[in-house]
Amino acid sequence: MITFVGAGPGAEDLITVRGQRLLKEADIVIYAGSLVNPGLLKLCKEKCEIYNSAKMTLEEVLEVMVKGHGDGKEIVRLHTGDPCLYGAIREQMDELKKLEIPYEDCPGVSSFCGAAAALEAEYTLPGISQSVVITRMAGRTPVPEKEAVRSFAAHQATMVLFLSTGLLKELSAELIEGGYNEDTPAAIVYKATWPEQKVLRCTVGTLEQTAREADVTKTALIVVGEVLDGTYERSKLYDPTFTTEFRQASCSKKELGQTGENQSTEMRQEAEGQSK
Ligand code: SAH
């Protein structure tokens, strides 16, 4: 069996319990050496064969998988964060499918979650943004024109940009062209959850300068949006004046000293949805 495993964002203890077990049991591990913390490989058996895919082509990775599978070995393909984001797993899965080699996917903690933890941020604050756009600037891998950063920026939702640390000047320009004010709060999180993590708070207009001053050129995420700053509404779900599927309202807005209109049916339904 081949298992694609999410290694988590960096810290050795941020892999899942399942991922940890799979690493311990593996006969072969092919890890994405450019980003996966090599400390995780300490979990492997002494006899485990270890390959660094940073130096391999897709064909070479598949060759190791096919041979290992033929020899009845347990194989882990270790990707950074969660493999579903910029992990290039689909092309591996499709080839394995053609060869009728079974595989599974074990999720991991993506770096965008690690960055939120580093920032002590909630990406979806009531009254500010209820959506997170995960995207990247076009680099050597192009981005479809209809997904240009500027078109997402028009929504003013929280944005998390992968693989864009080398293009911060262009990124600021795109964000501003799309409608973000240059004073909009932003952050650069370098190596989230690694011991050498850096959290740099700045604005949309100062991204490039901030990265330059801190000497950050790669392995960083850019987070943009008002959720990094400013005011927000408290949640309906934990509001004492609010009834949900699991809890009756314990007091009225008047008792709580809240002003504003009565809770609408729509808001009540929304909270019920959230609590499911
Ligand atoms: N699948 C991974 C992303 C792989 S793409 C995930 O879910 O996180 C590689 C990019 O992810 C890097 O260029 C960087 O932008 C980001 N990245 C990965 N690990 C990171 C970390 N610990 N801190 C900040 N950014 C990280």
Mean pLDDT: 92
Spans of at least 5 consecutive residues with low confidence: 260-268
User: Which bin fits the share of residues in helices?
Assistant: 25-40%
> β content, as a range?
15-25%
Q: Describe the main β-sheet briefly.
A: 5 strands, parallel
Tally of alpha and pi helices: 9
- The CATH class of the largest domain: Alpha Beta
Q: What is the H/E order?
A: EHEEHEHEHEHEHEEHEHH
| CATH topology heading of the largest domain | Methyltransferase, Cobalt-precorrin-4 Transmethylase, Domain 2
Query: CATH architecture of the largest domain, please?
Result: 2-Layer Sandwich
Name the hetero compounds present.
S-adenosyl-L-homocysteine
Structural class: alpha/beta
Q: Tell me the domain tally.
A: 2
Radius of gyration: 22 Å
The largest sheet has its strands arranged as 3-2-4-1-5
